[in-house]
Design brief:
With about 375 residues, this protein is of the alpha/beta class. It has twelve helices and 13 strands. The structure holds pyridoxal-5'-phosphate.
Length: about 375
């Protein structure tokens, strides 16, 4: 069976976690501080804050941006449900707009149409690692005084060309960028998340609110020679990452460039293999974007049934997943206010994700290509 994805972990990560376990300090501590410093350096962001996952990162981003009841946040329905849920956690209303059919990313023109006097923020998703049109979205946000939050859950290692320079996602393009280290993403800490920003006030809030707004952190208290008492001046959360996860993450960071290079090779090979199948549409990478290929998503010919193809592939030992979900089709969001979501629904119903992971062999990939070609009778 060829799986849809595999984390890229080995004894290096196991040893790193073991060392932390034996050190006596296992929750948020020195490893988290080092992981934040190294992640910030990697994406060229002034500040980074590690948290328990990307859902909590998105929640903290919205709380720090003062999003609350009565506010609207424009985002894509065509995303994992965490994006929409983070908006609901604040009592705010997600306003779903459609995506572009070629990139699967939020369409800046649709965002512009959806702005109202109640709009406070935009959450733009770099879907499956493909950078969305950040310059256009940043212009819109600036023009309307909105906060631009990037859901970069899938986009660690993805790049965008700005002013003729390639920059990693996470450098301050929007105000706040949120990453995930879930095993389905390109680097993993089991569960984990990261926020980057260039605004010191946001960074201060993230670090305060992730540990119950404690005025003096436990690491500082632990190292102090004087007795100090902490205060809790507002309602915060427990969104901490553990030092075991951070130690794993630091090892993963050293491999990120190689992992992305391998995935880009695999994506190019898929394009060669599948390029001439009638009716099959391959993912599109704009000239100003370099995806990390967190997923490789193809749109099936209109005349085939998605579930039948997926079942036949599974019967032949190839795991796939259907296209990215649409939140507005799930019960919590079914009655919500949203704009035309034609492309989003089309892509959920007609796209499938093919196996892709750094340790995938060329032979296994060829088998996926051959099997899909056979199923499509191409
Ligand atoms: C995975 C994912 C999330 C959630 O990340 P977690 O770390 O699992 O909370 C949010 N948004 C998108 C687009 C994702 O793919």
């Amino acid at each position: 069976m060829i799986p849809i994805a595999l984390p890229f972990l080995n004894t290096e990560e196991a040893d790193a976690a073991r060392d932390v376990i034996l050190s006596g300090w296992v929750s948020q501590g020195p490893q988290v501080v080092a992981f934040e410093r190294e992640f910030a350096a990697l994406v060229d962001a002034p500040f980074a804050t590690a948290v328990s996952n990307c859902t909590t990162a998105l929640h903290l981003a919205l709380v720090a941006a003062n999003v609350g009841p009565g506010d609207e946040v424009i985002t894509a329905s065509h995303s994992f449900i965490a994006t929409a849920n983070s908006i609901r956690y604040c009592g705010a209303t997600p306003i779903f707009v459609d995506v572009e059919p070629e990139t699967y990313n939020i369409d800046p023109l649709r965002v512009a149409e959806a702005v109202t006097p109640r709009t406070r923020a935009i959450i733009a998703v770099h879907q499956m690692g493909m950078p969305c049109d950040l310059p256009a979205l940043a212009r819109l946000a600036h023009q309307h005084g909105l906060i631009l939050i990037e859901d970069a859950a899938c986009a660690a290692g993805s790049e965008i060309c700005v002013n003729e320079t390639w920059e990693r996602i996470g450098k301050a393009h929007g105000q706040i960028t949120c990453f995930s280290f879930h095993p389905r993403k390109v680097i993993t800490t089991g569960e984990g998340g990261m926020l980057t920003t260039s605004e010191p006030e946001f960074d201060r809030k993230f670090k305060l609110l992730r540990q119950h707004a404690m005025s003096i952190s436990d690491t500082v208290r632990h190292g102090a020679s004087q007795v100090v008492f902490e205060r809790y001046l507002e309602v915060g959360f427990n969104y901490r990452m553990t030092d075991m996860q951070a130690a794993i993450g630091r090892k993963q960071l050293t491999k990120l460039a190689d992992i992305v290079a391998r995935r880009r090779k695999l994506a190019a090979a898929y394009a060669d293999m599948l390029g001439n199948i009638e009716g099959l549409r391959l993912p599109f990478e704009p000239s100003w974007a370099r995806s990390n290929w967190q997923s490789y998503c193809v749109r099936l010919p209109d005349w085939v049934d998605q579930k039948t193809i997926m079942q036949n592939l599974l019967d032949r030992g190839v795991a796939t997943r259907r296209g990215i979900m649409c939140s507005h089709r799930e019960p919590p969001y079914a009655d919500g206010m949203h704009h035309d979501l034609h492309n989003s629904e089309l892509l959920q119903d007609h796209a499938i994700l093919l196996p892709i992971y750094a340790q995938m062999s060329d032979d296994d990939q060829a088998r996926v290509g051959d099997t899909l070609r056979m199923e499509l009778r191409a």
